[in-house]
UniProtKB/TrEMBL annotation:
Biological process terms in GO annotation: phosphorus metabolic process
Lineage: Bacteria, Bacillati, Bacillota, Clostridia, Eubacteriales
UniProt family annotation: Belongs to the MscS (TC 1.A.23) family.
Keywords for this protein: Cell membrane, Membrane, Transmembrane, Transmembrane helix
Main location: membrane
Compartment annotation: Cell membrane
GO CC aspect terms: plasma membrane
MF terms (GO), sorted A to Z: catalytic activity; mechanosensitive monoatomic ion channel activity
Pfam families the UniProt entry points to: MS_channel_1st, MS_channel_2nd, MS_channel_3rd
Bilayer topology: Multi-pass membrane protein
Domain PLD phosphodiesterase: 173-200
Protein name: Mechanosensitive ion channel family protein
Amino acid sequence: MSATPIPSETLGPVTEILDNVAGDTSDSVTDVLNEVANSTGLSELFRNFTGLTLSRVISIAILAVCCILVIKVVQRFLNRLLTRGKVEKSLHSFLRNSVNILLWFLFVLIMASAIGIDVTSLVAVLSVAGLAVSLAVQGSLSNLAGGIQVLTAKPFKVGDYIETNSVSGTVQEIGMAHTKLVTVDNKLIYIPNSEISGAKIINYNPEERRRVDLVFSASYDDATEKVIFAIREVIDAHPMALKDPEPFVRLSAFQDSCIDYTVRVWCETGNYWTLYYDLLEQVRASFDRHGVTMTYPHMNVHIQS
């Protein structure tokens, strides 16, 4: 299809405007846009459909672009501040989401005011709508309140290993609605903040030291001193077992088929599971070396003639 030539009558006003702009550089950009819009008929078109002039629409568009740029700058500055600052990691996600909601809410108010909408009335309408929405999403608001409570009380932080509601794992993120846990087998668990804020929480990370508690069983035929010596030999040789507080190894109970010996050894928190399993394996090997019998439930039957 061939392009339809533009009539010279239409080009005439535009050419005249361009000549005026070239001759008088002191005219503002707004005046030039108004002259172009009035001469080409675009101003009347926008006024009929939107009630706004073309220059007004362009001004609003420029304002929107500037607002979006400011939002991006603030978000980038916040990310840099959270990364380089000493803000607790647990608060990062919550602060980002809160600031984003606030920025976009202000953006809506600014654009509404620029278009000519009464912001006071808009805020009133939004307040009523917010009340209706809050009644419909009470569960989500309860989760939000629970998240704020967790972030304020700080029973745990990102990176801690916790146990709650029959689940355990490492805290990956404390969000506005859910807390994410990563289990030891790499499963991701979402726990509503309303539940976790009111649940019993066991945090294994705040303290620098933890105590390993174990119970070993030996035969009634083995001397108590020999059993204790075999256990203490393993503890004294292990590099992760702390000497202060002093390890505890004592006879603790007489069972039906064996004697129980309670072992309590302190270690650094990060070495807990390594020491735990090392003691289980190495104490058994030590019992074998010293001739200590690890018994199991059994019954001796004596037959008399």
